[in-house]
Amino acid sequence: KSFLYKLWKGDVSSKMLNPRLQKAMKDYLSTNKHGVRFKGKRNSKLTGDQLFCELKERVNVKTIDGKEAPFSTLGWEKHVPQIPLGKLYTHGFGSCAVVMSAGAILNSSLGDEIDSHDAVLRFNSAPTRGYEKDVGNKTTMRIINSQILTNPNHHFVDSSLYKDVVLVAWDPAPYSANLNVWYKKPDYNLFTPYVQHRRKNPTQPFYILHPKFIWQLWDIIQENTKEKIQPNPPSSGFIGILIMMSMCNEVHVYEYIPSVRQTDLCHYHELYYDAACTLGAYHPLLYEKLLVQRMNKGLQDDLYRKGKVILPGFKAVKC
Ligand code: C5P
After folding, report:
1. Which atom of ligand 1 has the smallest separation from the CA of 126?
2. Cα 125 vs. chain centroid, distance in angstroms?
3. What is the spatial distance between Cα 317 and Cα 35, in angstroms, rounded to a whole number?
4. In Å, what is the CA distance from 21 to each residue of 14, 153, 286?
């Protein structure tokens, strides 16, 4: 049976990846750039429902609120939005779409379905203009990594992609989640452009995720995986799925687990081919996807044809 078929059944391991990706994973394990020291147990025995409840119980979407050092001494309570992310939408959303940037979404004609959701989450520099038929045109929230804020090619200050949406930024911090160490040596210095953007656009909701939240997700992925996963933060996609699970009654995730349209085309909007974008090299992406597959409540046929997974929101299910 093909790799894709096995992925749909949740029955794959890293040994089935191409040698280049396996080598990359091994190198990340030995480098351990972020100083990960995992103290928990590795286990993959939870059912999808148990895993959902574990996430519901433990995941706490946390953003930098300016109350902890060094941000407190730097006056960040004035810089961050007055309304926290969790209180922006007091009643939450009904159904939400998480639109992955994978090349496989091309020719999907999913645009109308995606736009019919109450809220739509997109990632980084993924555009809608010119791709409406496949990805829709509504954007409620955008998750951006620190390279978007710091790499001039992305035109973070001027581009319309980053206007009129809720922005949530993140940067790989040390596993210790020591904010002083992180502030002095972020992966990419997102702090300066963040404060500048907040000053210029004080009414736009714009948050930075707390490293504790990111690494809490990593711990849960590792605890529920037999193999040693890459000691690097989960992908923006996984982070986004969890944020939407905390804000929506139902989350429809598009082209995270690839459909029959699976391709090495990294992004639908860019002519660049690399299987790592879908299966992971730096991010523990394959393992994230296996957890999401385990929790899928949608139809198997929607997975094959649309690359769609349906997950309940945290409020929607009693544990
Ligand atoms: O590449 P980027 O991080 O901007 O893409 C957003 C998210 O979409 C990724 O973090 C990943 O979770 C997902 N993705 C994917 N397969 C791809 C490209 C992106 O699953 N080929």
Report:
1. 4
2. 14
3. 35
4. 9, 27, 11
What domain range includes position 14?
3-316
Tell how far the Cα of 278 is from the centroid of ligand 1, in angstroms: 7
Interface ipTM above 0.90? yes
Residue 245 CB-half CA count within 13 A: 26
Which ligand 1 atom is nearest residue 100's CA? 8
DSSP-assigned beta bridge partners for residue 141: 121, 166
**CA-based max dimension of the chain:** 58
Measured CA to CA, the distance from residue 39 to residue 58 in angstroms comes to: 16
User: What are 203's two structure tokens?
Assistant: 């009414």
**What tens digit of pLDDT does each residue of 261-287 get?**
999 999 999 999 999 999 999 999 999
Determine how β-strand 308-312 pairs with β-strand 248-254.
antiparallel
Index of the ligand 1 atom closest to the CA of residue 237: 12
8 A C-beta contact, residue 106 and residue 256 = no
Q: What is the pLDDT of residues 19-66, one digit of tens each?
A: 999 999 999 999 999 999 999 999 778 999 999 999 999 999 999 999
CA-nearest residue, atom 5 of ligand 1: 101
Q: Is 32 left (phi over 0), alpha (psi -120 to 50) or beta?
A: left
CA of 137 to the centre of ligand 1 (A): 18
Sequence length of the chain is 319
For the stretch 75-108, pLDDT in tens is 999 999 999 999 999 899 999 999 999 999 999 9
- What's 94's domain CATH number? 3.90.1480.20
Dist CA 230 CA 282 (whole Å):
7
Ligand 1: which residue has its CA nearest to atom 18? 102
Number of domains in the chain: 1
Cα distances (Å, whole numbers) of residue 60 to 54, 211, 306: 12, 11, 30
Q: How far is CA 284 from CA 53, 91, 254, 260, in A?
A: 21, 33, 19, 22
